[in-house]
Model the fold of this input.
Amino acid sequence: QVSLVDSGGGVVQPAASLRLSCAASGFDFTNYPMHWVRQAPGKGLEWVALISYDGTNTFYTDSVKGRFTISRDNSKNMVFLQMNSLKGVDTAVYYCARGIVPERGGFYFDLWGQGTLVSVSS
Amino acid sequence: EIVTTQIPVALSVSPGERVTLSCRTSQDVSDRLAWYQQKPGQAPRLLMYSASTRATGVPVRFSGSGSGTEFTLTISSLQSEDFAVYHCQQYNNWLGTFGQGTKVEIK
Done:
């Protein structure tokens, strides 16, 4: 069965760190770029980070650059999001998502994890 | 940055009614728009891409249309399982942006 399973969320204080994990199964993981997308309470979806098929290229939304790091382990079909210097505005449900790159570039998401809640509060 | 706006934020609909949701982008994105359905406590599910192509397994009562800056998602006859939040996402530029979502509630 094709699936993504997110884990690693929790309640942390501002400036703390957290590492999210996403386990993929049921498809050829190395064929897809992978993303993290977040959703703050009562808000819309926001793309956070992207990692290429082989992990050599990564991209981030401006608000997390320098604080978050996306990585992947293709031998274990896993993708990670290391989050440092967390702020209250980072409070959200974080979803791992499989990216589809259409012919003319850009990306949309055809498979999502169930999400993991990150709450940053003092 | 391309701003993506969904109208309305919420609407109340009776089962069996036809529903039309709107998504607008601040710049021309051609047909490079996706729609997602999100039920409470669940992850989003891809419904539509390239503005009008249904994703695998999506019922035919869902249809998408539009190009440029104006897009619509239509549900021809709303079923009980369709009450959810619907998000649109443009992917014409590198950093695709989402609308804030439209919540379809039971009337």
